[in-house]
Amino acid sequence: MKRNKLGLWLLTALVVGNMVGSGIFMLPRSLSAAASPAGVLLGWAVTGAGVLMLALVFGNLAIRKPELSGGPQIYAKALFKKSRTLSVLAGFMSSWGYWIGNIAGYVAVITTFASYLSIFFPVMNSKNVLFTVGAFELKAGNAVTFVICSVLLWGTHALILRGIESAGKFNFVATVAKVIGFFLFIVIALFAFQQSNIGPFVDTRTSGGETVGLLGQVNSAAVATLWAFIGIESAVVFASRAKKEGDVKKATILGLVISLIIYIGISILTMGLLTQSELQQSQNPLVDAISSILGSTGGNVLAIVGLISLIGSTVGWVLLSSEVPYQAAKQNVFFTSFTKVNEKGMPTVALWISNAIAQVLLLSTVSNSIASAFDFIIYVATLAYLVPYLISSVYQLKLGLTGETYENGKGRALDIVVAVLATVYSAWVVVAGTADIKTFLLGVAMIVSGIIFYPFLLRSLKGKKEEKDIKQSA
């Protein structure tokens, strides 16, 4: 029973691996532009506290509702359990949006991997035209990039088909390697830190021609840092594959602490290696920062750490993206065909369909029109990532207020307080993270677009029920 199960450290590696991806390399620049050092520190404090509440919510739900496995979006089903129709519809819509958003997310990780690899292989930037069809030109660099991205995608696919434990161990090795690399960066930066580079600890920033004070900077910094925590739910998604139920909560909190140390350490220390002006103008702040100490060799080593980081993130996100519809199908809120697994227990249909969609999106590396469409999907997928956090928090609050799963009342009051704080933070994240009403409405449209496939889901569930009735009567 314990074979092909994930222990505490493999679950923790999935959390850290999915949270610490490509975003860490540009985050110091984004934060420097958004806020002064004081604003950055306060922004991290707000985000860290909010995400800690979410981590506690995820951990509590994994223990109190172990039957609801598959990710935070699945709690939408349980919120409306009194109405079966509404329950299935809510579960399907949230799972649909979250699934599509995750696929777009790991395609972005794969294309980022290619951009880092091009540092070592200039041919990937070649502008030589291989052939032309009408207005379309296929350049050598784009063709090589497409092939490399496809190899990474399907290599990850083959690895995952070998079983959750094999994929988990690979992700663990990649995560350990990048954690060591980032901690070495932090140690080196500590010795080379120049306080004079930070400049005024409290200073103004400008946005849209207007001066932004400290409070506005904290808001901007908190919005920038919240993206660092996408993936905090990873252990919850794989709850049904954990060796112990309690490991899900431990892995979520442990993964959060490790990621926080890396993110805060790097974003703060980078400000002491480059001046604020250099940091805001840098196209690759971490590489520039380490190169200022160790030269080009240090920059190349960090680029290799980035490649390892992205490979690990690819494995983690592809795993997660196939697990989401698989678990949703087991909960009867997704197509029953997605429950099919191979002899290793891996969801083959979910994996093949997810990666087939990803392969189509990878055409963005060879076509500007497809690239624009892909950018649009990433843009509107924002809400699909954030809404499940709010759903989870509200569901935990509901459990606390109704007393469900709290037979002896132990811990109920504290869990209600945590749920309230997580709900407030999640609501703010949805509002702030979608930036404007256009992003919000387009995000809602993407989630609701699943309604097109809803009749097929009902037909699928009807067929499953009829098959079950036949077996029972036989």
Automatic annotation (TrEMBL):
Chain ranges passing through the membrane: 44-63, 103-123, 143-160, 172-194, 214-239, 251-274, 301-320, 349-370, 376-395, 416-434, 440-458
Record Gene3D superfamilies: Amino acid/polyamine transporter I
Membrane-topology descriptor: Multi-pass membrane protein
Pfam families on file: AA_permease_2
Main location: membrane
Taxonomy, superkingdom: Bacteria
Keywords assigned by UniProt, alphabetized: Cell membrane, Membrane, Transmembrane, Transmembrane helix
InterPro entries: AA/rel_permease1, APC_superfamily
Molecular-function annotations in GO: transmembrane transporter activity
Cellular component GO terms held in the UniProt record: plasma membrane
Record localization: Cell membrane
Protein name: Arginine:ornithine antiporter
Organism (species): Priestia koreensis
Upper lineage: Bacteria, Bacillati, Bacillota, Bacilli, Bacillales
